[in-house]
Amino acid sequence: MRSLGLVLALSLASPAFADVPCGGNFSSFVNQMKQSALQQGHSKSAVDQFFAAARQDPAVIKADRAQGVFQKNFIDFSRALISQNRMQNGAANATKYKSVFDRIERDYGVSRGVLLAFWALETDFGQVQGNFNTLNALMTLSHDCRRPELFQPQVFAALTLFEHGDFDPAATQGAWAGEIGMVQMLPKDILQNGVDGDGDGHVRLKTSAPDALMSGAKMLRHLGWRANEPWLQEIVVPSNLDWSKTGLNHKMTVNQWAKLGVQPRSGALGNGNLQASVLLPMGRNGPAFLAYPNFEVYFEWNKSFVYVTTAAYFATRLEGAPVYNAGNPDAGLSGAQMQQLQQKLTKMGYDVGGIDGILGEKTREAVQSVQEKLGLPADAWPTAALLSRL
Fold this sequence. Notes:
By secondary structure, this protein is mainly alpha-helical. It is 47% helix and 5% strand. The strands form 2 sheets. Strands 4-6-7-3-5 form a 5-stranded antiparallel β-sheet. Strands 1-2 form a two-stranded antiparallel sheet. InterPro entries: Lysozyme-like_dom_sf, MltB-like, MltB_2, Peptidoglycan-bd-like, PGBD-like_sf, PGBDSf, SLT_2.
């Protein structure tokens, strides 16, 4: 097992923010990126070879602007993603790579269900890794003015991988946003957390499951994963719970939640001194979970609330937890209604994180605050009744 320490040292010299102006003529942009790479100390021959095939890809921009899947609610999203086939493949891969997962749990303290869930949701255990040319995706998003500060450093990280022999600018393919391999990691993350899990001298996240899984585990630890601690657990909540105390922005110890009547649906609650939040993805009448400190690390991997909650719950299922009790949640809002709500909340002075029709964590916090002011059950679940009240 070998981490890319030397390559990491080189990558840390990369600028943290976009240093090439975005937009304008793409060929001129490529030339400016090449000049920046040379200024960072990359050789001219490597720079010329690396950027020779760079092209703009309109399909990347289209994909970036159309992430409507996250408008689904937790129950619909999780049922769509957690199939019986994925459960069976998860069990099979847990057995096939048992020795790898044993090493991961020993060295990084990351439970196997966590990585199996990411592996399943990101690429169906490596079967669907994306067919976008990675360099073109990263260059297109670096040129686009929406988030160049995120993607330009990824281009230079990919250049460093190319110099190490672990990236082919013409042939490497992955997701539209530039992620590579079985657990979908960006080039800079590969430089910082890539692990040679199979001992062949390279980090091959596309073809080596040990490399991908070990690298994913190291990345989670790098992002703040607390070794051998829980992340999410289904609970039963009393009907008289103070709903304003729920949500990721409110924390109490496990012991304090237990005193308020929170109980595990199966198994036992985590260590009584752990800080935790009661999470109600679809309000007080829907599924209920206790979110431990490790749950927050999921948001460092993916920013979508519904994706993160699904991935964390899926990990518990892969380790034997029962199917959640869906309850009988109140009907939610359509995407258009959610945008109306976000517009109204924004006018009231709340930061909802953008008017995108997606019920993310900031919108939830705003909804909960308004519910409390209106004397409604403050469970952060927006309904048509709330929308009409505003």
